[in-house]
Amino acid sequence: MANLIENAKREIDSLLQNACAAAAAAGELPGDAVLHGSVEIPKERSNGDYAANHAMAGAKALHLPPRKIAETLVAHLALEESSFSSVEIAGPGFLNFRLAPRWYGEVLSAVEREGMDYGRSEERSGEKVMVEFVSANPTGPMTIGNARGGVLGDTLATLLDMAGCDVYREFYVNDAGNQVDKFGRSIDGRYRELLSWDGDYDSYMTAWRALRDKEHPEDFPDFPDDAYHGVDIIELTKELIDRDGDKYLAMTEEERRAAFIAYGLPKNIDLMHQHLDRYGIHFDNWFLESSLHESGYVKETVDLLTAHGHTYEKDGAVWLRNTAFGAEKDEVLRRSNGFYTYYAVDIAYHRNKFIERHFDRVIDVWGADHHGHAIRFGKTMTAPELGLEGRKLDFLIMQMVRLTRNGETVKVSKRSGKALTLNDLLDEIGVDACRFFFNAKPDTHLEFDLDLAIRQDSENPVYYCQYAHARICSLLAAMAAEGCAVPPVADIDAALLSTEQEIELIRQLSALPEEARLAARDYDPSRINRYVIELAARFHKFYNACRIREAEEAVKKARLALCAAVRTALAVSLKIIGVAAPEKM
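RE: above sequence
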């Protein structure tokens, strides 16, 4: 697969190595001359398309001034049949290379040849990677934080797949522990409350909304403060009463709560499936926390750490000597009541990923509130017995989201009065806007402008990019109807694409494989957002500056081939993010 930017850099290095060898053979450089250096894309295009620092990097070893080395290398450069038309010496010895028209033709050929696979590589072939993301608590609806983690994790997984990795997407279901007990208690509290309510369901909801708005708390004296207070719990309870009436009152409290959990948890998990499916996210596996407890794997993991001297007992609890691994504090693994902590379960879960399922790399997408935990947990997993030797545990920590409308912070849903959920947001602005906006740079706070997300103009970046794709589709369809179809790239003269707008557009086309590679390497899916916005911008500039229908026939054909290539790159980029590439708007 083509990465023409990396190819160009390697070609420059090869050309300079050959020039060095030729100069040494001619006696103009030392016979044992070894040339090293780097090739970069200059910020200023006036400095060429690529700049190499080999002459300066080799000055000390060759005992010659950089400028002299540069002049000698240029004298022996063989640019014929290369991707470069010329080279210039700048400053103390930079070598600035300029691309030849044939290179621009190679970009269009690569896009034509690879189609929707443009940007893929085999660079990381054979690397088995798990991306674990969303993993929302199944005791309630998914939040805006889950929405952001969903698209970041899903897009990163796609990029890793494009880099050649064997990628596995996983959702970790917290179906055990304190939050599940709290879920059962919450339904139980609402169940008893609704059955004893002096009035119908509508009057109950009216009173509940008043309580939500800080009015008349005396109407709900018995509902526990530490329970889940959302409308979703009330709705689940209403379903239970409609189906089964008051039959659960005859049970013990423990039996009743267990029955409520058995009813409510699968419904919530199924709802998560539905909402994530709507969001365009599909997991290879939904891993149940309860399976770790039922199999004895948590106990086995804690016993393993104990056997190797990594734990101690204090006040009846079992503690991990995490400070021995460089962490700031030790961690409780098993409480004095015999229950294992979430920290112990996390260790067991990650041990399962590496030891039992043999992943080479695991990436956890977590919220900003998990930053400290990620640091401590990363230290824990350096224990040799946990199986990371030769493998890698990484974290993608995303910052918080602030929703705004009319310049003001939005916190509530009109339906529930609670914070907006993922499904609420999909109802309001749609999947494409959600995925595009949430795919912003993960390590920065995101201000999500709901008004901007639904605008249909160039200020809305997702609309701007989709419009570019639709504009090209309409253009090519109209031209084909006039008998002027897109020609094969082999039949065009790429040298005719010589305006500033055309050259800048092809340069941006060439950058997609490199941007995809760097986005996967740096765990920064937002690079694709920035890339596709810039590609759309350069296309619109080209479209406004360069006539197509009225152009001379050979130029027209070249420009049509360029448009087709841009259409492909736009579609590939939007697909990476999970956004539709419409043909009409």
